[in-house]
Amino acid sequence: MPAQLSSFFSRFTNGLREFTIAQRTVAIIGVAVLVLGIVGISVWLSRPQYSPLFSGLSATDASGVVDQLRTDGVDYQLTDGGGTILVPEADVYSERLKAAAAGLPSSDTGGYSLLDKMGVTASEFQQNTTYKRALEGELASTIEAMKGVKTASVKLAIPKDTVFISEKSDPTASVFIATQNGISLDDDQVQAIVHLTSASVDGMKSSDVTVVDAKGSVLSASGTDGAASGSKQSTEYETRVQTAVQSMLDKVVGPGNATVVVAADMSQATGQKTSTTYTTPTDSPAINESSNTELGGGAGSGSGSSAGVLGPDNISVPSGSGADGTTTGANGVTSQQVTKNNALNQVTEQTSIPAGELRKQTVSVAINAAAAGNLNVANVKSLVNAAAGIDTKRGDKLSVELMPFNTAGAVSAAKEIAAQQKAEADARTMDLIRTTAIVLGISIPALIIALVLLRRFRRRSGELRDEKEAGELAELRSIMMDQTVPMQLTPPAAAAPITFTPMPIEPGDTDRKRAELDALAGADPQRTAEFLRGLMDDRQNA
After folding, report:
1. CA angle, 443 then 449 then 452, to 5°
2. Which of 170, 173, 152 minimizes the C-alpha distance to 161?
3. What is the enclosing helix (H) or strand (E) of 352?
4. What compartments host this protein (predicted)?
């Protein structure tokens, strides 16, 4: 183990030994909480993400899919009352393929697939019934695809075609809707269901569709013919006009000094209007022209004989000029007939009349007399007339009046709002103070404990470092004292010269100590100088 790591563990162990029982308990609890947190985060991160495998399943299909998952050993979760099955994301597609191979989900609403199962020997009644069931299933599946719809059921009543009745009844439909939890269908979605159903059946009108929800509430009754939509159109028009006029008056007399009420009468009838206009072209030749002239009779035919055509009461009519262009002369009878066919311009216009046509409207405006001042009522009427689109020929009415407003309610409401705002501000302040007190109550003792432990740990580390350095200095002092002992040399007995061969000095413990001494001198020169100064004093005293 490296010296630094060993020193760290030794200091850490010595620091723990200095802890009291309470401090050790707190430290153990903190370490345990930290370990549990790390384990919990690891488990949460390693947990697989679940995705829907199937949703909107019946009890039979859900049971079959669950059995398939158990056989494959795949974890699953059931939600939405057992109608939705969740599996890990990695197993979604493989399990869907396996379920499809096993024929799951098996139950459905039918649809046009019922026609594929119908045999060639089916009777006319079976064919009609199967077709109606298929159409009901297709409509139910389409409605279930809408947002917020959980299940849907459609029942059709289609009259039988026969030649023995002169008047045929219109087909009708009943739609049952079960929405998801906490979701309600708005008017637009209900109207979409009504029009979708009516447009899918030949001869069915939107007024022949009834929509009912799971609570038993009638969302669209048969025979209303879009009355709810017409009411919505009226409300939207009134709101739009009221907003425009109110915005203008707020800039004229100030906010809160004018009130506007709009009542609109809108027609809900729809239809087609066809008009044809014929005009005679000018300077246009005739398309065709025919002339027929007849000549007859002899020279004596012009005498005054009484021969002729018998008239009423068998009285003969004398010969003369006829009223039909036939003339009688001395030479006989002449008849001429002319026929001319002239071209005419024909213009045919077809106009669709939608629901929501404005019949008339009434706009009432009340202005606070205290804020009006020198306001001209005629000018205000002119402005409102233009902003609301008043048409007197249509029967629209406009009323603008100056009157004192009752401000007691406004003053009381303002006081209540101010009191409520003050109470909310006080509550927020108290919550902030309470939260701050809790945080300080927890953090301050923890900070004090941490500072005490850190100070004690530093003090203990300093003591250990001083002890270690003192031991190293003492060891170095002993080494230096050993090296300063004088050596006793005994002269040789013979006077003959002796040749000394120098021996190589092998590095040993002394060299290592010298290297450590050099390192200590480089790390702390002042302490090393003091040590050497003391060593020299000891030698002088000796």
Report:
1. 140
2. 170
3. strand 345-353
4. Bacterial flagellum basal body; Cell membrane
Bond preceding residue 486 cis, omega within 30 of 0 = no
pTM, two decimal places:
0.43
Which residues are CB-contacts of 368 (< 8 A; sequence separation ≥ 6)? 253, 256, 257, 258, 402, 403, 404, 405
Query: What digits encode the pLDDT tens for the residues 160-219?
Result: 877 777 777 889 999 999 988 888 888 889 989 999 999 999 888 888 899 999 888 888
Residue type, 54: F
Whole-number pLDDT of residue 262: 94
If we measure between CA atoms, which residue out of 219, 221, 216, 266 comes closest to residue 241? 266
Give the Cα separation of 74 and 85 in Å (integer): 12
How far is the C-alpha of 38 from the C-alpha of 21, rounded, in Å? 26
Tell me: the pLDDT tens digits for 147-173?
A: 888 889 999 998 887 777 777 788 999
Residues 6+ apart with CB under 8 A from 199: none
493 SS3 class: coil
Q: Which amino acid makes up residue 164?
A: F
Q: Which of 55, 47, 56 is nearest to 90 (CA)?
A: 47
Give whole-number Cα distances, 354 to 93, 266, 269, in Å: 50, 11, 7
Instruction: Answer yes or no: are the C-beta atoms of 328 and 304 closer than 8 Å.
Output: no
What does the block give as tokens for 205? 């009108």
What's the length of the chain? 542
In the block, tokens 């020299």 appear at 536
Residues 112-133 as b or e (16 or more Cβ within 10 Å = b): eebeeeeeeeeeeeeeeebbbb
Could you read off the pLDDT of 69-101 as tens digits, one per residue?
Answer: 999 899 898 887 788 899 998 888 998 888 888
Tokens representing 132?
Answer: 């109606």
Q: Which residues contact residue 453 at a Cβ distance below 8 angstroms, ignoring those fewer than 6 apart?
A: 15, 19, 23
Report d(CA 350, CA 88) in Å as an integer: 61
CA distance 181 to 152: 15
- Kindly report each contact of residues 6-15 with a partner whose C-beta sits within 8 Å and lies 24 or more positions away, as own/partner: 10/464, 11/457, 11/460, 11/461, 11/464, 14/460, 14/464, 15/453, 15/456, 15/457, 15/460, 15/461
CA dist., res. 33 & res. 30, Å (int): 5
Distance CA 519, CA 308 (A): 168
Amino acid letter for position 346: Q
Compute the distance between CA of residue 167 and CA of residue 159 in angstroms, rounded to an integer. 11
Q: How far, in Å, CA of 172 to CA of 210, rounded?
A: 8
Question: 3-state SS of 288-317?
Answer: EEEEEEEEECCHHHHCCCCCCEECHHHCEE
